[in-house]
Write a structure and sequence with these properties.
Rab GDP-dissociation inhibitor activity, 7-stranded mixed sheet, Guanine Nucleotide Dissociation Inhibitor, domain 2, Guanine Nucleotide Dissociation Inhibitor, domain 1, FAD/NAD(P)-binding domain, cytoplasm, alpha/beta, GTPase activation, GDP_dissociation_inhibitor
C-alpha cells in the first residue's frame, strides 16, 4: 500500500464519497479507506432489518416484519430538492446512471396541533386552511414576486435593496402576518429557526424560489428520494470514483495520520503506509481537530400505517415550526415506505429529527411522536455535532461537518462546495447543470 496518492479519503459518508468522485473525475489519484465494512458512514442505510435491531441493542424484530433484506433504513433522514444542489451534482457527474429516484408524495406543516398540506397548486392554496381568504391573496402576490425576482434586474425588486432589506421588512411590505411568516420561513424557505427574519432577504428569496422551482418539476412535492434508501448515494459516487481509478478499502482500520512539518503526508494502516498530498475525512477520524457545536436527536419509527391526515401518502415530509411547540428550532419528520424499496409490504419508516435544546431530548420530539401513533418500534439516537477547528489550508486535512437536523441536502452540499474550494481554490458550480427533461428523475 506504500504509494503516493493525490488524495486519501477516510470514511464513506456522502460528503466524502462526493468529493472522492469529483477528485477522481478531475484526474486525481484517490485512495478511499473506511474502518466500517459498509458504505455510507453516518449516512448509511441499514440492511437487513435484524442489523438495525442489533445496532440499537433492541430485541427483535417481532413477526411479522417480512423478509429482513426488504428493509433499507436510513440513519440520517433527508430528501433531495428536485432543483437543488445535490441533484445538479448527480447530473454533472452522471451518477444518475446508478440510482433510481421517486418523487415524494407530499409536504406538510404542523399548525395548532394538526398537520396541513403545503399547497402545491393554486387550487390547493385557495382551499388551504393555513391562511385566511385575504392573506391568500397577499401570499399569492408575494409568491409571484419571488418567482419573478432577479437580483440583477431592478425592475423585479419593488424598489428595495435585497442585500439590506430584512426578511421581516419584506413580509411587512406584503402585509403578511405571523402565521404566514412561520409557514413560509419554515415550510418553504426551510429555515430551522427565526434568526433569518432580521437578516437581508436575498438568501430567503432564493430559498423560496428553489422550493417553487423544485415543486414545478413534478407538482406532487419538491422532493425526491432514491429507491433502496439514501445509502445508494455514497455508493453511486464511490462507483464513479472507481470508474476513474479510485481505490476503495472497506473494513480497514486507520492506525495513524502521518504528519511532517505541520502537513499531512500519509496514513498508516495495519503496518502499511500510503502517502498523500491532501486528506479528506469525517470528524470521527480526527477527534482532536474538531469542536462540538450541539446535538441532534433522531428517532426511527416503524409503522404499520400511513401517517394520519396525509391522504394515505406513501411518502411525505412534515415540518413542525418551532413557534408551534415553543422551541428554538424546528422538528422534522420524513416518512418513506415499501414503495421506495426500504420496507416490507404494508410497512412505513418515519424518522424524526431535531436539534437538541434540553436535557430531556426525547420529550422534545413528543409532538412528532404523537402524529405517528401507534408506533410498532422506535429506535432513538442522540449524536454530537462537530465542525473542524481549522480550514485545512495549512495542514491539508479537510474535515467535513456533522449532518444537521434538516431533512434536505442543501447544507450538506454547501459543506461539500466549501471543502472543494478550500482544497483546490476553485469554485464547484452546478448552476447550469439542470436538465428539466432528465429521465433519471421520475
Amino acid at each position: 500500500m506504500e504509494e503516493m496518492y493525490d488524495v486519501i479519503v477516510l470514511g464513506t459518508g456522502l460528503k466524502e464519497c462526493v468529493l472522492s468522485g469529483i477528485m477522481s473525475v478531475n484526474g486525481k489519484k484517490v485512495l478511499h479507506i473506511d474502518q466500517n465494512d459498509y458504505y455510507g458512514g453516518e449516512t448509511a442505510s441499514i440492511t437487513p432489518l435484524e442489523e438495525l435491531y442489533r445496532r440499537f441493542n433492541v430485541n427483535g424484530p417481532p413477526e411479522p416484519m417480512g423478509r429482513g433484506r426488504e428493509w433499507n433504513v436510513d440513519l440520517v433522514p433527508k430528501f433531495l430538492m428536485a432543483n437543488g444542489q445535490l441533484v445538479k451534482m448527480l447530473l454533472y457527474t452522471e451518477v444518475t446512471r446508478y440510482i433510481d429516484f421517486k418523487v415524494v408524495d407530499g409536504s406538510y406543516v404542523y399548525k395548532a396541533g394538526k398537520i396541513h398540506k403545503v399547497p402545491c397548486t393554486e387550487e390547493e392554496a385557495l382551499a388551504s386552511d393555513l391562511m385566511g381568504i385575504f392573506e391568500k391573496r397577499r401570499f399569492r402576490k408575494f409568491l409571484l414576486f419571488v418567482v419573478n425576482f432577479n437580483d440583477q434586474c431592478a425592475n423585479t425588486q419593488y424598489d428595495f435593496d435585497p442585500t439590506k432589506t430584512t426578511m421581516r421588512e419584506l413580509y411587512r411590505k406584503f402585509d403578511l402576518g405571523p402565521e404566514v411568516m412561520a409557514f413560509t420561513g419554515h415550510a418553504l424557505a426551510l429555515y430551522r429557526t427565526d434568526d433569518y427574519l432580521d437578516l437581508p432577504c436575498l438568501e430567503t428569496i432564493n430559498r423560496i424560489k428553489l422550493y417553487c422551482e423544485s415543486l414545478a418539476k413534478y407538482s406532487k412535492s419538491p422532493y425526491l428520494y432514491p429507491l433502496y434508501g439514501l445509502g445508494e448515494l455514497p455508493q453511486g459516487f464511490a462507483r464513479l470514483s472507481a470508474l476513474f481509478g479510485g481505490i476503495y478499502m472497506l473494513n480497514k482500520p486507520v492506525d495513524e495520520i502521518l504528519m511532517k512539518n505541520g502537513q499531512v503526508v500519509g496514513v498508516k494502516s495495519e503496518g502499511e503506509i500510503a502517502h498523500c498530498k491532501q486528506l479528506i475525512c469525517d470528524p470521527s477520524y480526527v477527534p482532536d481537530q474538531v469542536k462540538k457545536t450541539g446535538r441532534v436527536i433522531r428517532a426511527i419509527c416503524i409503522l404499520s400505517h400511513p401517517i394520519r391526515d396525509t391522504n394515505e401518502c406513501t411518502s411525505c415530509q412534515i415540518i413542525i415550526p418551532q413557534t408551534q411547540v415553543n422551541r428554538k428550532s424546528d422538528i422534522y419528520v420524513c416518512m418513506v415506505s415499501c414503495s421506495h424499496c426500504v420496507a416490507s409490504d404494508g410497512k412505513y419508516v418515519a424518522i424524526i429529527s431535531t436539534t437538541v435544546e434540553t436535557e430531556a431530548p426525547e420529550k422534545e420530539i413528543q409532538p412528532a411522536l404523537e402524529l405517528l401513533e401507534p408506533v410498532d418500534q422506535k429506535f432513538v439516537s442522540i449524536n454530537d455535532q462537530f465542525k473542524p477547528k481549522l480550514d485545512g489550508t495549512k495542514n491539508q486535512i479537510f474535515i467535513s461537518r456533522s449532518y444537521d437536523a434538516t431533512t434536505n441536502f442543501e447544507t450538506t452540499c454547501d459543506d461539500i462546495k466549501d471543502m472543494f474550494r478550500r482544497m483546490t481554490g476553485a469554485t464547484l458550480d452546478f448552476s447550469d447543470m439542470w436538465s428539466s427533461d432528465n429521465s433519471d428523475f421520475q
